[in-house]
């Protein structure tokens, strides 16, 4: 082969690679099936969006998007038999929940699903196509999008982001921002950690001291040593949501097809509540809302009928606000020494034939589960609620239990040997997998780089295939102890939240980290425009 021929071959190869690359469409999360076809569809001021009573709201959203982002004024019409230059949302009841098809041809764009939820996800894909995968003529006011066919649906039904506001109150504006980004990434569960040792953030009308006292602390532990730090901020921190504000946020989430699952911790992580009403605690001592992080000084006395009444009263007000069928009760990191030191608790355990503190916790937890079921709800909790021994400070004998956790419980797996998750699944429990080493957003990037986050598989490696359907999804957790500012939260959350969104949506055989990283550039443009202060590329991988 001559040098000239070799050069020509190399040139054509490079040209071919360039053409292939230029044809790629980058959407996050990556669709399950995407076929690019020849031709384009042009969106301009003459484009009509077809609507009926069912699609009127989402059509208005799309029209506003074109107007705001591109200064294109599309037309709305109820006429269903247009021939060209139109967009339409169609219903096909054969589709599974949340699935959609998006078809772009020379004459139209069709988004097909079995419900408004599927339409919504198809719309998010269309927005990413128009914003980042299309040609836009600013002066002639039109968008050219490639003809294509997308068939898409989620891998997991639970795709969650958790925000801890008990440690640092962030407020409505930041919560709405997070809900917007979750919706754009097709995440569907906002897990809201509203109460903990260091703060109570939800108004409970029957118990006003929970916010009068429990939502405030005098100072906060800070410093580079974190848990061992002796440094205090010497500045008070406070904040809570009124029930009216909660309702506004719930509606905002519902409009984006996001369910908000509230977490009301019990029986541990309850110091802020006990500081508000000392009779709730096992010791009955007057205490203050802690100014240091870590596990609290006391736990609820679950053997006291008055305490149980308090907890069900709180849950009643929570359930009156939140339509979610799932209520998270925490249940993690309960220090049993409080119960072991109480004569009345030991007497109660003897009467109920409960041999260990773990027996007592599971017994109590089951009573809460039964109460929630009576109200048409379902309990969820961290995996300690099964009696798992996960902590060095627990005596192994104290965590042995013969009690069987209510079968309706959703286990939120966060710590321990993966075999614990396997055992729970094989025993029939549904599981949300949030293994801390892969999903905790407060972890530094050197410990949890973006590539590691992206590599997480919610289904344990050795889990028998017949139990795979018991893993209903994953959650990523933005714990707040060392995240005092909004900027801190942005940096820790973005871009990793996009990795978790793709894990929850995209089939594992469609995942590709290089593709994901390239698609991330589109999201970074969006975040920059929205003043979301994400971690840049140089920081998201492990620093040597």
Automatic annotation (TrEMBL):
Domain of life, per UniProt, equals: Bacteria
Q: Which CDD domains match?
A: GH20_chitobiase-like (cd06563)
Reaction equation(s) it catalyzes? Hydrolysis of terminal non-reducing N-acetyl-D-hexosamine residues in N-acetyl-beta-D-hexosaminides
Q: Which EC class is the enzyme in? A: hydrolase
Q: Which UniProt keywords apply?
A: Glycosidase, Hydrolase
Entry's EC annotation: 3.2.1.52
Where in the numbering of this chain does the Glycoside hydrolase family 20 catalytic domain appear? 156-507
Tell me yes or no: is Hydrolase among this UniProt entry's keywords.
yes
InterPro entries registered for this protein in UniProt: Beta_hexosaminidase_sua/sub, GH, Glyco_hydro_20_cat, Hex-like_dom2, HEX_bac_N
Pinpoint the Beta-hexosaminidase bacterial type N-terminal domain residues.
Answer: 25-152
Q: Which family does it belong to?
A: Belongs to the glycosyl hydrolase 20 family.
The protein's name: beta-N-acetylhexosaminidase
Q: Which organism is it from?
A: Polaribacter marinivivus
Taxonomic lineage is: Bacteria, Pseudomonadati, Bacteroidota, Flavobacteriia, Flavobacteriales
